[in-house]
Design a protein that fits this description.
Blueprint: H1 7-17, H2 19-23, E1 28-32, E2 38-43, H3 52-67, E3 78-81, H4 84-88, E4 93-95, E5 102-106, E6 126-131, H5 138-151, E7 155-160, H6 168-172, H7 183-190, E8 204-205, E9 213-217, H8 227-231, E10 238-239, E11 245-246, H9 248-263, E12 267-271, H10 278-286, E13 291-296, H11 300-315, H12 319-322, E14 326-333, H13 339-354, E15 383-386, H14 397-403, H15 406-426
Parallel strand pairs: 1-5, 2-3, 6-12, 6-13, 7-9, 7-12, 13-14, 14-15
Antiparallel strand pairs: 1-2, 4-5, 8-9, 10-11
Helix pairs in contact: 1-3, 5-15, 9-10, 11-13
């Protein structure tokens, strides 16, 4: 029995057997549809070629037999297009290993894909707090980081994009300072060209006693309203003139740009949804992040998820576009005698995760992207956040941040804060 994961390895084997026929084509696309079934798309002139058409039909027939239910019947398994661009039909494409002229196009049910890596945005650095699973202290770390940066005199824009599990605003804003609207309100109103009037009521300042200021955009306003109904619409593309669609992540980017122009922050901190889905993808890959903090705790769930993500980037050939922005953060590090052992195990697992993304270097050669396991400047070297019961969770964090002193924050989040301050000072994130 053939399963989805075997479709590309089987296709690679079949095409290798028929290399002579495949090499004659200017291009060939393996199209995997929404159900995971495979078709060929070839240049339309092949359809009229009495020699090449039967050859390609024979290759596809061989592949169809191998793929079983994951292929179309021979009479509907080959499509013809005038150009390769038309064959892509707006979808991302990546090369099949071992072939210069064979491309894979995956048709996905969601708009946002992890393989489309936006260039680093200009202006204020966009720093994404991301985790594969929840409960690792990600949002609390963001709140503490925002406070520390504001204490140092920075204007910090914070966006709660964990839309399906909102709560960051309660950490930084008392109930009487909550803004009227939130991200979900804007995304829904923007669909009907009513987003602009919401901007001035979309954020609020923290009111904390700091030299700088925190501007927070919550997931929803002080009255959530029909939040579930709105949430079901935020991912919608916006249809513009000439029936052109603006994806929801493009709309989100437009919102961030608008807020940045209005507030002029020194840094933008983004709380991403946990997991591997289109919402997290938008935060990590679509918004032009300068730095992506990958929160981890020791455990197989963490590494299984991150391994799937990095493998996807490698398969799609985009790992080099994003690897320089990644930085591991170790959450919930024991603040006792277990700490060193915990960090040693986590660093070893992190190195195993990142090692395949580093450049292979011959003896005596030099590379800008090659790190040893014990290199403290490597992205796999974790910035540690120590476990502290008083800082775990968001329920009373706003009250704590009114009273807390810097030494207490630094004892828990020092390495993370120092990384941010050093990066901003040195211009690495500016």
């Amino acid at each position: 029995m053939i399963t989805f994961d075997q479709t590309l390895p089987v296709a690679r084997e079949v095409l290798a057997i028929h290399h002579d026929q495949i090499s004659k084509l200017d291009w060939l696309i393996l199209n995997r549809d929404l159900n995971g079934r495979v078709r060929f798309i070839v240049p339309e002139e092949i359809g009229a070629d009495e020699v090449q058409r039967p050859e390609i039909e024979a290759v596809y027939q061989s592949l169809s037999k191998q793929l079983e239910l994951h292929a179309y019947p021979i009479d509907s398994g080959i499509l013809y297009e005038a150009t390769q661009e038309q064959a892509h039909y707006g979808a991302q494409a990546f090369r099949l290993d071992g072939f210069d002229n064979v491309w894979i196009v995956d048709r996905l049910a969601n708009e946002s894909g992890w393989e489309s890596i936006a260039e680093v945005a200009g202006g204020a650095p966009r720093i994404v707090f991301f985790s594969i699973k929840g409960g690792v202290g990600r949002s609390t770390a963001l709140a503490a980081s925002a406070w520390a940066l504001a204490r140092a005199g920075k204007r910090v824009l914070v966006l709660d994009l964990d839309l399906e599990s909102p709560g960051l605003s309660s950490a930084l804003l008392p109930s009487d300072r909550q803004p009227k609207y939130g991200v979900t309100d804007w995304l829904v109103e923007d669909l009907v060209d009513n987003g602009e009037p919401l901007i001035q009521d979309l954020y609020a300042t923290s009111g904390l006693t700091t030299a700088g200021e925190i501007y927070l955009v919550p997931a929803h306003g002080r009255d959530p309203g029909e939040y579930v109904s709105k949430l079901g619409r935020v991912w919608m593309p916006k249809i513009r003139a000439q029936m052109q669609a603006e994806s929801w992540s493009m709309r989100l980017n437009r919102l961030v740009n608008t807020l940045e122009e209005r507030i002029r922050p020194h840094a933008i901190l983004i709380d991403s949804r946990a997991g591997i889905d289109e919402v997290a993808a938008a935060c990590v890959t679509d918004l032009g992040a300068h730095t992506i903090f990958m929160f981890a705790i020791q455990g197989q769930q963490t590494w299984t998820g991150y391994r799937a993500l990095l493998s996807h980037w490698q398969q799609r050939g985009v790992i080099t576009d994003i690897r320089g922005r990644l930085q591991l953060v170790a959450g919930l590090v024991p603040d006792d005698e277990r700490r060193l052992d915990y960090l040693a195990i986590l660093r070893a697992d992190a190195y195993a995760l990142f090692a395949d993304t580093y450049d292979e270097v011959e003896p005596g050669a030099i590379s800008d992207w090659n790190f040893e396991e014990d290199d403290d400047n490597a992205p796999h070297s974790p910035l540690q956040i120590r476990w502290n019961r008083g800082w775990y969770g968001l329920l009373s964090l706003q009250h704590r941040m009114v009273q807390v002193d810097y030494s207490e924050v630094h004892s828990v989040y020092g390495e993370l804060i120092e990384f941010l301050n050093r990066s901003l000072t040195q211009g690495q994130l500016a």
